[in-house]
Amino acid sequence: MKSWTAASVAEQALRLAQSRPGDLLVVVGPTASGKTSLAVELAGALGGEVVSADSVQVYRGFDVGSGKPTTEELSRAPHHLVSAIDPGEHIDAAAWAERAASAIVDVRARGRVPVVCGGTFLWIKALLYGLAETPAASEEVRQRHRAIAEREGRSALHARLRSVDAESAARLHPNDLVRVSRALEVHELTGQSMSALQRGHGFATARHPATLVALTCDPATLTERIRTRARAWLRDGWVDEVQGLVSRGLGDSRPMGSVGYAQVRSMLAGDLRREELEEAIVRATRVFARRQRTWLNHADVTWLGGEAHAPGG
Asked: Looking at the whole model, is its pTM more than 0.85?
């Protein structure tokens, strides 16, 4: 397989971006495929700044296991919406999209070029197309869902969702309590499934004309990157970080349920042996990457040939 560098792949993306000057440039791809390196290269070449679309990097304190940009990367390209909110705060796709749109306006107003980068694809869809109309949150419903999850387990709540909205259930991991609860809540409040509402919306009218680019990466190479990254993060203090977050009462916070953090938390709770941790993280991350690839297969993405080395996302 031909070897590529982040700079050489960025040249391909740069030519594409220059051919579509009115489009918002969005770097997507599976986790560990090299998105951050590519976005930083592009921002440097275009005189730009990166707007992060990552649902874990947005939280303060979740640093080691989220692949946040390094000090060197931040010096080359300012990043927006990284470490932007406290872990106890709630941010959903609509709220993030509003913040991201404001950041894009600010970047452009200063004569700079925004480069959106991330793997939280619902957030990216919300930014580019808006979201389907859904009912306001009901704290009563959410409390009831949390009680079910505590009493019967998160898989029980997921099973309830599967019975009324199999499409959403197939898309969401049983441990993703917040999103499973929201999809179930929408059905309970409207009698319609979240997936049906989203199909009706269609995500058809672009609010921000965009060019989406991603790095190609064969499954074997991606698995090896995932493993190398997990090993490096564990060596760099990931377990200590999670232990500190748990001691601060953040063990049940939304980002703690994300891939990798959930496995480290399980190990600390005694549900997983330390020697099993790395492999558990790799397995969960591979599943996550497959779900990301499924979304990408249905999106209008330009795939750039590349093996751009990047330990991050």
From this structure: no
Structure tokens at 203: 């995500």
Give residue limits of the domains in the chain. 1-130+209-313, 139-201
- Contact present, 93 and 122 (Cβ < 8 Å): yes
Helices 121-129/277-297 angle, 10° precision:
30
Cα distance between residue 260 and residue 283, in whole Å: 10
| Segments in 49-138 forming alpha helices (H) | 71-76, 93-109, 121-129
* Strand-strand pairing, 301-304 and 210-215: parallel
The neighbour count for residue 201, using CB atoms within 10 Å, is 16
CATH topology of domain 1-130+209-313: Rossmann fold (3.40.50)
**201-237 pLDDT tens trace:** 545 556 889 999 999 889 999 999 999 999 999 999 9
Residue 311 to residues 195, 230, 274: CA-CA distances in angstroms? Answer: 34, 9, 22
Q: What is the distance between the alpha carbons of residues 155 and 173, in angstroms, rounded to a whole number?
A: 9
- For domain 139-201, give the CATH number: 1.10.20.140
